[in-house]
Amino acid sequence: MRKVALGDTGIQVSRLSFGTAFMGPLSDHLSPQEGAALLLQVLDQGISFWDTSDDYGTHPHVACALQSITRDEVTVSSTLKCSCVDSGRSAQLDIKDDLCENVEQ
Q1: Is 73 helix (H, G, I), strand (E, B) or coil?
Q2: In 11-87, which residue ranges form alpha helices assigned H by DSSP?
Q3: Which terminus of the chain has fewer CB atoms gathered within 10 Å of its CB, N or C?
Q4: Could you state, in order of their start, the residue ranges of all structural domains in the chain?
Q5: CB-based contacts of 66: which residues, under 8 Å, 6+ apart?
Q6: How many angstroms separate the CA atoms of 25 and 74, rounded?
Q7: Tally of helices (H runs) and strands (E runs) in the chain
Q8: In which element (H, E) is residue 58 found?
Q9: How far apart are CA 14 and CA 3, in angstroms?
């Protein structure tokens, strides 16, 4: 799949993104293992830009998929819900902590 620039970030992502909202408890309620299998299938099709969110409840699905690949194979975008964010760096650490916590489980 063709890669495109993600704004002015210098990051190259697949032209299509795969959203995970339907995987979580708000919709189909796939297990993290089922969601990870689906993410790996779309990666095989060249879609390496994944979208997740605290609101979707799909960080465990993404974390499970990340265990099976090298981290540089995908770009993960996420939004998170927090009452107070001091900086973008703080938000980045919150996401990293959440994903790492799910990998450890």
Answers
A1: helix
A2: 32-44, 59-66
A3: C
A4: 3-104
A5: 74, 76, 99, 103
A6: 24
A7: 3, 5
A8: none
A9: 4
């790492």: which residue's tokens? 100
End-to-end CA distance of the chain: 33
Spatial distance between the Cα atoms of 37 and 78, rounded to a whole number of angstroms: 19
Q: Which residue has the tokens 């992502």?
A: 13
Q: Which residues pair with 54 in a beta bridge?
A: none
Residue 50 has pLDDT above 90, yes or no: yes
Q: Name the amino acid, one letter, at 66.
A: L
* Of 95, 36, 42, nearest in space to 62 by CA: 36
89 membership: H or E segment, kind and range:
helix 88-104
- Residue 39 CA to residue 50 CA, distance in Å, equals 8
Q: Is the Cα dihedral 20, 21, 23, 25 positive or negative?
A: positive
pLDDT digits (tens, 9 = 90+) for 83-103: 555 555 666 676 677 667 655
